[in-house]
Design brief:
Elements: E1 5-6, H1 8-20, E2 34-35, H2 60-63, H3 113-116, H4 142-149, E3 172-176, H5 198-201, H6 204-214, E4 223-227, H7 238-255, E5 259-263, H8 265-272, H9 278-281, E6 286-288, E7 291-296, H10 299-302, H11 306-320
Parallel strand pairs: 3-4, 3-5, 5-7
Antiparallel strand pairs: 1-2, 6-7
Length: 328
């Protein structure tokens, strides 16, 4: 049928009605479906008896100016009746809807407050969640802090912990993710260095970082080193990361560095959370627990990557505004 008839007039009619909207009715001239001209060589269409179009009787709206139709009237349906009347026979009485609520009808009286009140004995009691304080939260010295975290579940099976190494109140604090498995049994391991940074700065990574920050007027003796997870590296669950952030906050209160530098993208999200993007915030001045902080790339990857060295020196370091290049 779609190929046989021309629906252009119908489209025009419907388009005009859409333009007018629902408030008015388009009274267009009567129209009929017309057949499309047959294409050469096409079979003749089957003829059907034509249906005469019914003339539309004139209405007052067609002869006089259209009056605006009120928009707030309720819709009328074919079987609906005027307000106040009923279509039900007079001899049939409508049964009242039974009241099963137990309350007095609001149309004939006030609601019985005694019936609606819930007895105090049935009211749910407020539950108080008791949070047990961790032992490290009450530590008063750095050594006491390390002794107390040995009792935490995450460190219960660890033979030793990597403690802070460096001066009191350092100008710069290196925060590394965890002890490298390759370094755990070496002489440079933080488990064996007794709080000294000499062994770390003797490694290729330590020498690179020492030269980098010496160019920023920060001497090696003014740098301290600590670890986010104070044992060998391993995957950390989000709940464990939250506990380690609390420990780091307590530890920083004892170390009191001027600036903390975190290394690697995974450590960035462990310390500062998933709400920040590493690429957008690497090198920018941030704050962690009241300590000025800046995030840099992984030094163990940077030591053999010239592009990462260039990114750190030319982009991230100047972006922070926390360092001054030493005069040569």
């Amino acid at each position: 049928m779609a190929d046989e008839f021309d629906f252009s007039e119908l489209r025009n009619y419907l388009s005009g009605q859409i333009d007018l909207g629902e408030a008015e009715l388009l009274l267009d001239e009567p129209w009929t479906l017309t057949r499309k001209p047959a294409a050469p060589g096409a079979p003749a269409p089957v003829t059907r008896p034509a249906v005469a179009a019914r003339p539309i009787p004139p209405t007052p709206a067609a002869t006089s100016a259209a009056r605006p139709v009120p928009r707030n009237l309720p819709p009328q349906f074919p079987n609906s009746s005027a307000p106040g009347t009923s279509n039900a026979p007079a001899d049939i009485q409508q049964a009242p809807i039974p009241d099963t609520t137990g309350f007095a009808p609001s149309l004939f009286g006030a609601v019985d407050t005694k019936a609606s009140a819930i007895p105090a004995a049935n009211m749910p009691t407020a539950r108080t969640v008791k949070r047990s304080a961790h032992a490290f939260e009450s530590a008063e010295t750095l050594d006491a802090f390390y002794e107390s975290i040995k009792g935490e579940a995450m460190y219960a099976k660890e033979a030793a912990l990597a403690r802070y190494a460096g001066p009191a109140k350092p100008k710069l604090l290196f925060l590394l993710p965890a002890v490298k498995l390759s370094d755990a049994g070496t002489a440079t391991s933080p488990f064996n260095t007794a709080g000294s940074t000499v062994a770390f700065f003797g490694t290729p990574v330590g020498e690179m970082l020492s030269r980098l920050f010496a160019s920023l007027s920060i001497n090696q003796n003014d740098i301290g080193i600590t670890y986010f997870f104070k044992s060998t590296e391993r995957p950390l669950a989000p709940l464990l990361e939250a506990a380690l952030r609390k420990m780091l906050t307590k530890e920083l209160g004892f170390i009191q560095p001027e600036i903390m530098v975190t290394f690697s993208q995974p450590l960035f999200y462990q310390v500062f959370g998933k709400g920040k993007n590493f690429d957008d915030n690497a090198g920018t001045a941030m704050d962690f627990a009241g300590t000025k902080s800046v995030a840099l790339v992984d030094p163990y990857l940077m030591v053999n990557d010239k592009q990462m060295k260039w990114l750190t020196w030319k982009v991230h370091i100047p972006r922070s505004g926390l360092f001054t290049i030493a005069a040569k």
